[in-house]
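Question (not urgent): is this output format expected?
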Amino acid sequence: MATLNGTDLGDIQTESQTKNGQLFQMPLPTQDSSTAILYDFFGMMRTITITGIITGVDATQVTFIDAMEAIANGAQTGVTFVSSKTGFANKTVYIDTFEWTVNKADVRKLHYTLTLIEGATS
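Got this back:
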């Protein structure tokens, strides 16, 4: 079971993670790629993208939406993300985007996408 700030993320459809070095890259004119200058000025960033489904009546869906929007309130502090993947430690994350949709064909299913950024406030 995956959770964000203790809230069950329901039926996870996809979970992807990207670590990006944000490397400064400067290729040299008339040179091959092996001579390119790379600087690691900015450090690593981890982005976690989750798509999932919350199944239930309107009240269940509203509770989930309210919980996510309470985190993404414009003055975020880091919350704990627990992945359902084995061996993945808890991460302190911030919500970058939260999107949800309900399809008229099945109003008992709320489809959502969460984009989380790992980090700490400074």
